[in-house]
Design goal:
By secondary structure, the chain is mainly beta. The protein is about 5% helix and about 45% strand. The strands form two sheets. A six-stranded mixed sheet has the order 1-10-9-3-7-6, with no helix packed on it. The chain has a six-stranded antiparallel sheet with strand order 2-12-11-8-4-5, with helices on one face. It is globular.
């Protein structure tokens, strides 16, 4: 298993695998529970979503090509291990796809006065869907004190081969800002 540092890039050898995303929330005095959501943006060579259906999240669980499938919304983040998962099958990916961005956002962050500074133990990992063997992991250890959305990592295609990059970059505007960026 490879533990990645921010910005590190590694080849992805598996054609089918699962992206596991996890986090814990600090006890907050905002009076509201945290609801963090994982999303995947499937981008073409122009850096934009191929079509609306290629934005995979809790309201659109599967890309049209069947290559990216969100396993469902976890409303609490309770428990150990992955809080949300996205299954990837690169053998089915639309040939126009050049990149898949993995983002985690805080639902209703502004209304609930929440940000990633109140989130700890956040990670993204890649594991073999069949065996459960973890091959890559990136633990986000930055302090995102004002950000309400974080790009955890990305898969991208170079010279016909897929690679994973550990990103760990936050934004204040939440999911809407990422939709604007990639649409």
């Amino acid at each position: 298993m490879i533990n990645l540092e921010k910005g590190q890039r590694v080849a992805v050898e598996l054609p089918r695998f699962t992206i596991g995303l996890g986090w814990d929330t600090n006890t907050s005095d905002t009076g509201a529970d945290f609801d963090l959501d994982a999303s995947a943006f499937i981008l073409g060579s122009n850096g934009k979503i191929l079509a609306d259906e290629y934005f995979v999240f809790y309201n659109n669980l599967k890309s049209p090509d069947g290559a990216v499938e969100h396993t469902g919304d976890n409303l609490t983040g309770e428990g150990e291990g992955d809080d949300e998962s996205i299954k990837i099958d690169l053998s089915k990916i639309d040939p126009r796809a050049e990149e898949i961005i993995f983002v985690v956002t805080i639902h209703q962050a502004a209304e609930r006065r929440q940000n990633f500074g109140q989130v700890r133990n956040a990670f993204i990992r890649i594991y073999d869907t069949t065996t459960g063997e973890e091959t890559l992991r990136y633990d986000l250890d930055e302090d995102f004190s004002v950000e309400t959305a974080v790009e955890f990592g990305r898969l991208y295609k170079r010279n016909g081969a897929w690679k994973f990059e550990a990103i760990g970059s936050g934004m204040k505007g939440g999911l809407a800002e990422y939709l604007q960026k990639y649409n």
